[in-house]
Write a structure and sequence with these properties.
It contains 11 helices and 11 strands. It is α/β, with parallel strands linked by helices. It has a domain of 159 residues: NAD(P)-binding Rossmann-like Domain (Rossmann fold).
Length: 315
């Protein structure tokens, strides 16, 4: 334990953060793991520009390493909906990012990467690295539970929006967390190699077709869930516009929450996938959980969660 470090996980109560804390706590080279989350501290919610605050704290408190969890949304799709087919960390992709979430992630990435090499007050050097997650599934994935509720309401039919040739990467939450553990460790051991770098998160989920992955996960938990049909773009676009009109008309009396918007729809139907082994080359990453294990763990959680939903509605 000589020289063992203390790890702080911001967002440690979140979907991915919780798993990072769990895996870090199993490593014998770590002295202590601390979690910090706005869900646990109300005063944290009053702070703005969180990434800037984290970088500033690293410099003031002489913290030498910072690993930032970003997203493929920081890259795109762009407002022009240009596809990206199996790119990698070096692929050039231009244009303005479509979703507000992606824009904030891109801004945060810039802050973190520009902070690499900063000299804190003690004369040391801050080393930073970025991991880009994609569509993350697994236990406590809210979107899976919501899809399951929708499928049950439709007698087990799971329809989908994306065209069948659309590609997206999906990664099990345990493997995303494991990549964080390895990257954080090797950022200390191989700072010259990892510092200032960006790595995509990946696992061994076999399909890049989102609707197939979702169906396999839900049907593993409930064999009655069956794949439905593709919802055409024009039909969903009209539904979004109709919903907006209804919101305006009924706004004095009722304001239903939007279920989807056009930018998000455009993102869903646009191919945005990558293919890389950079994390394997840089810090020896291999998925900790196989596709079979990932699917089983997710299915077991969904089965347990389904018990709290009650019986499906009568046909």
């Amino acid at each position: 334990m000589d020289g063992a470090r203390v790890y702080l996980v911001t967002g440690g109560c979140g979907f991915v953060g919780e798993r990072i804390v769990e895996l870090l706590s199993q490593q014998d080279y770590i002295k202590e793991v601390r979690g910090f989350d706005s869900a646990a501290r109300e005063e944290v919610e009053k702070l703005s520009t969180g990434t800037e605050n984290v970088v500033r704290a690293c410099c003031v408190l002489n913290i030498p390493y910072l690993l930032y969890t970003s997203s493929i949304a920081a890259v795109g799709p762009s407002t022009s909906c240009e596809p990206l087919l199996r790119g990698n960390e070096d692929t050039q992709y231009g244009g303005e990012v479509e979703l507000p979430y992606g824009k904030t992630k891109a801004m945060a990435e810039k802050i973190v990467l520009e902070a690499n090499g900063t000299k804190p007050s003690n004369g040391g050097t801050l080393r930073t690295c970025v991991l880009r997650a994609n569509t993350v599934y697994g236990e406590k994935a809210a979107f899976l539970q919501e899809l399951y509720v929708l499928a049950r309401a439709r007698n087990g039919v799971l329809n989908y929006l994306e065209p069948e040739d659309t590609e997206r990467n999906h990664t099990y939450v345990g493997n995303v967390a494991w990549m964080h553990v390895l990257a954080a460790r090797h950022l200390q051991l191989k700072a010259d190699l990892l510092a200032g770098q960006v790595h995509y998160c990946f696992g061994d989920t076999p399909s890049r077709k989102g609707f197939l992955v979702r169906h396999q996960l839900l049907s593993s938990a409930d064999p009655s869930v069956r794949l439905g049909s593709h919802i055409p773009y024009w039909k969903m676009w009209l539904m979004i516009q109709l919903h907006r009109i209804i919101r305006v008309i009924l706004s004095p009396f009722w304001r239903p929450q939007p279920f989807l918007n056009v930018p998000l729809l455009n993102t869903i139907v646009t191919t945005f996938s990558f293919e890389t082994d950079k994390a394997s080359r840089h810090f020896g990453y291999k998925p900790l959980f196989t596709w079979q294990e990932s699917r089983l763990r997710t299915a077991q959680w969904l089965k347990a969660a389904a018990g709290s939903l009650g019986p499906p509605p009568a046909a």
